[in-house]
Amino acid sequence: MTASSALEQLAELQELDRVLREKEQEVDALRAELSGWEARLAERRQEAESLAARTADVDRRRRELEARLAEEEDKMKERRMRLNRIRNERELRALQHEIELAKTANQQMENEVIQLMEELEQLQAALVVAREQQEALEQEFQQQASTREDAVVRLRAEMEEARQKRAELAAKIDPQLLQRYEQIRARRGGLAVAEVRAAICLGCNMNLPPQFYNELLRGDEIRLCPNCHRILIWRANDAGAGSD
Questions:
Q1: What's the predicted TM-score (pTM) here?
Q2: How many angstroms separate the CA atoms of 211 and 207, rounded?
Q3: Within 13 Å and on the Cβ side, how many CA atoms surround 121?
Q4: d(CA 170, CA 196)
Q5: Strands annotated E in the chain
Q6: In angstroms, what CA-CA distances link 34 with 9, 23, 145?
Q7: For strand 206-207 and strand 193-197, is the pairing parallel, antiparallel, or unpaired?
Q8: Beta carbons of 240 and 198 less than 8 angstroms apart
Q9: What share of the chain is helix, strand, coil (3-state, %, to 5)?
């Protein structure tokens, strides 16, 4: 096999690797988008759950306070009944004082119940909104997830087809040359084969020495860029061919 034929095979292999890399990046981007949606949905769920917990806590405190207030009201009725039966002046004054203190305490509890009811009303309204937003986001997430999952399935099918083509092509390339290609590709960010145009390596955008370029044009052997050490390929349609 001539050097030019081997270079064309390497260039084709490079193109397949480029396609695979781009499709892998697309898959990663789609997965990242899905992760972002999942994170937003989890945050919205957490907000709704937090509101639900706060609502339940306030409602519990309200019910407990109302129960205590009902008990104190019963005690107050009992004190008033005792008040009518007491004839001792000292005991009467003590019970009246006790009643006044209880009335003050009950009034404080009533005020607290009212505050809790207002807070509960606000929390319940906020919870309704949070649940509606969560449901809307759930539906949107399902749509977005379905679209992106379909895209991932398609990309993976295309990647599998490209991998099969790559394996078939790699089997035709000289093993030592293939190993060299893989080593350069690993060191050079996935780009092992660079095209040459007008005596410039498009891998590093550096000018090639005139003598080196003229030798490259002969196409009798595989050459590496003196600057970036990528495999160079020149095609006859290069406008700068033959120029020193």
A1: 0.70
A2: 12
A3: 6
A4: 23
A5: 193-197, 200-201, 206-207, 231-233
A6: 37, 16, 6
A7: unpaired
A8: yes
A9: 75, 5, 20
Q: How far is CA 186 from CA 9, 92, 193, in A?
A: 18, 98, 12
How does pLDDT run across 9-34, given as a tens digit for each residue? 999 999 999 999 999 999 999 999 99
Strands 206-207 and 200-201: antiparallel
Cα(232)–Cα(222) distance, integer angstroms: 7
Q: How many residues does the chain have?
A: 244
Cα separation values, 155 from 15, 20, 152, 170, 202, Å: 16, 9, 5, 22, 28
The type of residue at 81 is M
Angle at 31 between CA 25 and CA 37, to 5 degrees: 140
Q: Residue type at 94?
A: A
Q: Which residue has the tokens 């309204």?
A: 125
* For range 81-91, the mean pLDDT: 84
